[in-house]
Amino acid sequence: MQATEALYTYEILTMEQTDLIHKAADCLTRSFVGIDVNGNWIQEPMVGQLNLAYEDFYQFTKDYLDSTVDQGYCAVAKDADNNVVGVLAGDTNAPEIIGEDIFEGSFYDMNVILRVLEDVDKRFMEDYKQRNGKELIDGELLHIFMLGVTAEHDRHEVIQQLGNKLITKASSQGKKVILAEATNNKSIRVMGKYYGMQKYKDIEGNFIVHTYQDNNKLNSIPLNIADGTYIIIKEL
Questions:
Q1: Domain segments of the chain: what residues?
Q2: Which InterPro entries match (predicted)?
Q3: CATH hierarchy code of domain 4-235
Q4: Tens-digit pLDDT profile for residues 134-143
Q5: 48 Rama class: left (phi>0) / alpha (psi -120 to 50) / beta
């Protein structure tokens, strides 16, 4: 089989690459809303459960990339035709707790996901302050927010190469920690295997997790797919 290096190239996006930012947002959106790749259904469980539409989720994703790409932590995999087939998007912002619904109309149920993420983020930041005696501030860590891969071949290699790009850069820039909110069992396995990330335990030794069975909007998600959203972490 042709080597992955010949199939895909990898780069970190800049603000000027507007066409690639659009393609990256499309790749992420399709992998979150749902796409068939070689007979395997790829979908983020909360997005699927809430039946969020492509158009709404694309705009959310594009807005995120537009607001964070200048930080230099959005890596893409491109095929020979310059199509984006993999994206790992992150930022160096401390988690923001808004505490109220901000999405409206057909995208209203995105507020459910926002509350899940804010739940685990808030508990992490409280634990961080208790451990370190200070608030977490912007620039201290790399927050991995979205991973999406639509490549038909060598998907695991794509995932690893994207992670290598961002983790190497984060380490070289003095980041001490990589943080993510893992929303399903597969992402926990993938982040553990390829990025060395593990479920985070708070100062009392408990996982920080929002359990879907306790959420009346998400409790129909099968346990074998996902039991909750966990904070996962890797120290650099």
A1: 4-235
A2: Acyl_CoA_acyltransferase
A3: 3.40.630.30
A4: 999 999 999 9
A5: alpha
Tokens for 91? Answer: 């930022």
Radius of gyration of the CA atoms of the chain, in A? 17
CA distance 140 to 92: 7
- Which of 24, 117, 19, 140 minimizes the C-alpha distance to 74? 24
Distances, alpha carbon 110 to alpha carbons 58, 84, 143, 150, 161, in Å? 12, 25, 20, 23, 30
Tell me if 93 sits within 8 A of 143, measured CB to CB.
Answer: yes
pLDDT tens string 30-67: 999 999 988 889 999 999 999 999 999 999 999 999 99
Q: How many CA atoms lie within 13 A of 180 on its CB side?
A: 26
